[in-house]
Amino acid sequence: MAGIYLHIPFCKQACYYCNFHFSTSLAQRPQLIQQMLQEMVLQKDYLGNQPVSSIYFGGGTPSLLPQEDLRQLLDQLYTLFNINTDAEITLEANPDDLSPQKLQELRTAGINRLSIGIQSFHEEDLRWMHRAHNSEQALQCILDAKAAGFKNLTIDLIYGGPTLTDEGWARNVQQAIGLGITHLSCYALTVEPGTALDHFIRKKKMPAVDADKAARHFEQLMNRTAQAGYEHYEISNFALPGWHSRHNSSYWQGQPYLGLGPSAHSFNGHSRQWNLASNAGYIKSLEQGIIPFEREELTPVMMLNEYIMTTLRTSAGCVLDTVAGRFGEDSRDQLLQAAHPFLQKKWMVLKNNALVLTPEGRLFADGIASDLFFS
Amino acid sequence: MKNIRNFCIIAHIDHGKSTLADRLLEHTKTISERDMQAQVLDDMDLEREKGITIKSHAIQMNYSQNGQQYVFNLIDTPGHVDFSYEVSRALAACEGALLLVDAAQGIQAQTISNLYLALENDLEIIPVINKIDMDGAMIPEVQDQIIELIGCKVEDILLASGKTGIGIEEILKAIVERIPAPKGDPEAPLQALIFDSVFNSFRGIIAYYRIYNGTIKKGEKIKFINTDQEYFADEVGILKLGLQPEKEVKTGDVGYIITGIKNAKEVKVGDTITSMANPSKEAIKGFEEVKPMVFAGIFPVNTEDFEELRDCMEKLQLNDASLTFELETSQALGFGFRCGFLGMLHMEIIQERLEREFNQTVITTVPNVSFIAHTTRQETITVNNPSEMPDPSRLERIEEPFIKAQIITKPDYIGNIMTLCLGKRGLLINQSYLTPTRVELIFEMPLTEIVFDFYDKLKSQTRGYASFDYSPIGRRDSDIVKMDILLNGDKVDALSALIHRSRAQDFGRKLCEKLKELLPRQQFMIAIQAAIGAKILARETISAMRKDVTAKCYGGDISRKRKLLEKQKEGKKRMRQIGNVEVPQEAFLAVLKLDE
Ligand SMILES: Nc1nc2c(ncn2[C@@H]2O[C@H](COP(=O)(O)OP(=O)(O)OP(=O)(O)O)[C@@H](O)[C@H]2O)c(=O)[nH]1
Ligand code: SF4
Ligand SMILES: [Mg+2]
């Protein structure tokens, strides 16, 4: 099973914490869509005719695209690739774009899953993040999306920010659960280098991120979603049974995916490649028939480390037989030995022959993964 | 021999020595166009990266004038104060020196100190005003400064630009006409002074020498007079861009020898080579031992790598005779070396070279100068390491090394410099105007106050319009105390510092704050304390870790995130476990970063 990712590199305004590639000018939209269609032709064999089970429009803000663009992109994909009839087709949307009419258009275009960038239901947080929407739109768009018939809905929420109190976070989580949203992606606010947030913190115009608060919020989140019947199937992802994200799961399971558009990443099992993160550069190069990208071939050690890093984040965990099968028995033994202190600390358990993080261990997922890395 | 000219290029840092050397090499076609690059003699990676010369570099050129063929041996030298030892060794191989002065900056502190070094060696000085292509060039003013300094005539001063090539022909002519040919007796027993050596992993040790008398021949049996060891001259030759083997190297010339020696200790820079066939009994006067100014511990990150590190240190010492070290043991860090450095830049460079050229990851500890402690039992103890400081109850007094600092600046900055130096326990000894716009200030100051960040502060206080040189003036009694750092109550010997009592409180507080920043949170609370004896001066706590970054992970993040975690893993490798606390490598140098 394979996935396809389309990067739509436009946003209305720049959120302070964001380090994705996007432009706030839509002037080049027509040329860019043209060249993405062209890139599909050039990459039609990348997935080797494997069945595609998920398509994901990410960004940037794909909900800025008019229906016609979406239709063209999807048509071309269906023509060139082997897309399953029941494929999961997700589009990332921002609340301020989701009018009832827009929602209807998206459904007609074939989108069957929406990922809405809510981030918070509180006005104060949204302002602080410099989001384009307000708290009223945050709530209204979910009601409208449900009314328009979108059952498969996921929302993004950010915790740990300076304006978000413990109680405010509890209310956000409760609001999402109460609305019956089937899937939640919840992220700790992270300060990425080069973002406005990073700049403000350095200039001491904003307080540094409070790691203790973020940890409290994460624990709160785990408890509350568990009570409400959500499965914590990946560090940042929670779903009611049967509503896991197929597309994101393919990333964590090491499935191949093709990324299209500026800055998009692709993976074919043994190498990763990423397109140039510049709209103008991308367009110019593709006009010459060349996809501008860089590639990294993965060594066995890199593959093993990626396997450890991604699977440890999931509830299925890092499967020891898979490690032995793909990387040799020695690797399995060595991994188990390195895991020993974490098993002792109860940050990890051995379950169904897999190393699985406990709720406490999830707070240290990255640190544990890096300790288990091979070199 | 009458057509040989041995000379070096000396100047204040960045006055354009290496660039001028490029032009000389180009003009004499010593280096093909293909091999040419800016500052071609700066061939160490570190030199290229930092844009400064660290090691002297000798190279031979051929030059013809009026139908005569000349051999020039040029030595490019470093300008930074820490490396003045390199300059003094180069001088021993020469009869003359090009003294460069930047046309926009004029005479600076190391212009003067390097000039005096050259005069002590009786070298013929050719003053050159360099960089005359620059907009800010002040030729007449700099001419006056030079005349004042060395008492020459204005016609004696050459004008040049290493950048554009102006004046190169005149310099070459002056070298022929003004620098004397080497003296020496070709028939006398061989005497060759080793002025430098390098280690080559294939060929062993390569020694560079200047021949004062006699000839050195390939294949003959030779002896190092001071160590009294005999070897075969497997290969001898002269120095071009690479090594150029010859059958023999003659009196007056500069060359190299390879004898297959692999052990660094056997070759001493400053030793004299003679031949066994016709041995000379006398050695040429070598070099004064270099005196290290700063001491710090260097430890392997993994205790098992100690022997390997020892081997690397010995090889590095061959390339850098100014590095000294002896065994040190630390409770916190295990076996390592107490090393002596010429200054902080030198220390930084040694650490970087160990990492790059020898693949060693090391931990460097808080540097200090060398004190002398007198005990109540009339013992005299040299303290190069805080652990050597006797207990206060046994201590009678401590002597601290002082220096004379010479600072040349514009009158506008006198105020700032006074504030800076007085704040560093300095005493103003003299102030004199060299010209109406240039003033020289002389201070006496404790060495320890200038080794750490003094030079950076001086530069920022004067916007770069100050140059600085110093020389030791002996030791004076001083109220020095040992300050310890405790992590969760355990004393960390590698973080102890020797410091003037008046500074201890402030220093302890800042160090604790800095350590709080540098120590990663752990699963338990960490108390950081600074103490003199039993008295706690400052305290900080790091609360227990709740979480490390567990950020999102998309398809696009996977390789980026993998690299991040790989880097984290590397970082952890450099941590040391002290008691139950993990201490990263940077923490041991926290003391140097207190003002950041
Ligand atoms: N304009 C101008 N710049 C020059 C000239 N010579 C050198 N420079 C510049 O001055 C800087 C220092 O030059 P170097 O040749 O490395 O100086 P140096 O004296 O060898 O420096 P150290 O060996 O570190 O003491 C470089 O940026 C050169 O490009 C010149 O004649 N004119
Ligand atoms: S809308 Fe999304 S992609 Fe655009 S700036 Fe905000 S967070 Fe980044
Ligand atoms: Mg130089």
From TrEMBL, chain A:
Domain Radical SAM core residues, every copy: 1-231
Cofactor: [4Fe-4S] cluster
Tree of life domain: Bacteria
Keywords: 4Fe-4S, Chaperone, Cytoplasm, Heme, Iron, Iron-sulfur, Metal-binding, S-adenosyl-L-methionine
Short name of any one Pfam family annotated for the protein: HemN_C
SMART domains for this protein: Elp3 (SM00729)
One of the GO BP terms on file: porphyrin-containing compound biosynthetic process
GO cellular component, one term: cytoplasm
GO MF term list: 4 iron, 4 sulfur cluster binding; coproporphyrinogen oxidase activity; metal ion binding
Subcellular location(s) per record: Cytoplasm
Function: Probably acts as a heme chaperone, transferring heme to an unknown acceptor. Binds one molecule of heme per monomer, possibly covalently. Binds 1 [4Fe-4S] cluster. The cluster is coordinated with 3 cysteines and an exchangeable S-adenosyl-L-methionine.
Similarity-based family: Belongs to the anaerobic coproporphyrinogen-III oxidase family. HemW subfamily.
Protein name: Heme chaperone HemW
From TrEMBL, chain B:
Domain Tr-type G: 2-183
Top enzyme category: hydrolase
Predominant subcellular localization, coarse grouping: membrane
Any one annotated GO CC term: plasma membrane
Keywords from the named record: Cell membrane, Elongation factor, GTP-binding, Hydrolase, Membrane, Nucleotide-binding, Protein biosynthesis
EC numbers for this chain: 3.6.5.n1
Gene3D superfamilies: 3.30.70.240, Elongation factor 4, C-terminal domain, Elongation Factor G (Translational Gtpase), domain 3, P-loop containing nucleotide triphosphate hydrolases, Translation factors
GO terms of molecular function: GTP binding; GTPase activity; ribosome binding; translation elongation factor activity
Record-level GO BP terms: positive regulation of translation
Protein's membrane topology: Peripheral membrane protein
Xref: SUPFAM superfamilies: EF-G C-terminal domain-like, P-loop containing nucleoside triphosphate hydrolases
Domain of life: Bacteria
Cellular compartments annotated: Cell membrane
Signal peptide start-end: none
Homology family: Belongs to the TRAFAC class translation factor GTPase superfamily. Classic translation factor GTPase family. LepA subfamily.
Protein name: Elongation factor 4
Organism expressing this protein natively: Chitinophaga tropicalis
Lineage of source species: Bacteria, Pseudomonadati, Bacteroidota, Chitinophagia, Chitinophagales
